[in-house]
Amino acid sequence: MTGDHAHGPTAGQSGESEVEKPLIAMIARLPGVTVVRAGADNGAPEMAWGDSFFFYDPNDDTPADRRMPFATLVINDYPGFDTASQLHRPSVVRLNLDPGRDLFTETVGYPPAEHPTHADDWDYSALDQLIPHPVYATAGWVSVLNPGPRTSARVAELLSAAHARAARHHDARRARHTDQSD
To answer: The pTM is what?
Structure first.
């Protein structure tokens, strides 16, 4: 959603929980953000329906297959792939952020490449605690289940960094595309 434009189900129709609504609104207010809520109408796999993906795309014109989210809000376990957060619990959501490798390292205490040796040290189902993403930690993603008082300030910093990083990458891709078409 750029401003109040959305793809997929909209608030009120989507069954967004009271936990999701303020998180989606907070991220959607950032400049240039497009929100895609996975659903049947946009071809998302059924297991992802209701999950929200946040892209920096100020003109909302980047082809879907070229978008990379800087944040996601996941409400579903993905059987056989991503179940460590136990998102099947009522009103539990996981905010995932891509703040970059340096902020990942600062947040969790080791670089992303070292996550496999630390993976068992984390409780991926703990609420309001910054953790490495249970699947994408090696790519530098961090997560928090139901962000609250303990994590809100740091989540705001990491979200700002992830958004700025996505904007830089978007602008660099645009510049490369413009240079190639000249």
So the answer is: 0.89
**Does domain 20-181 match CATH 3.40.1820?**
no
Closest CA to 9 of 37, 45, 29: 37
Q: Are 104 and 142 in contact (CB under 8 A)?
A: yes
Provide, rounded to the nearest whole percent, the portion of the chain with pLDDT above 90: 79
What six digits make up the tokens of 125? Answer: 């189902």
For the chain, the structural domain boundaries read 20-181
Give me the residues paired with residue 76 across strands.
Answer: none
Question: Residue 118 is encoded by which pair of tokens?
Answer: 């630390």
Residue 13 pLDDT greater than 50, yes or no: no
Q: Which residues contact 93 (CB under 8 A, 6 or more apart)?
A: 17, 19, 20, 23, 73, 74, 75, 87, 145, 146
Sorted by sequence, the CB contacts under 8 Å of residue 110 that are 6+ apart come out as 118
Whether the CB-CB separation of 37 and 56 falls below 8 Å is answered with: no
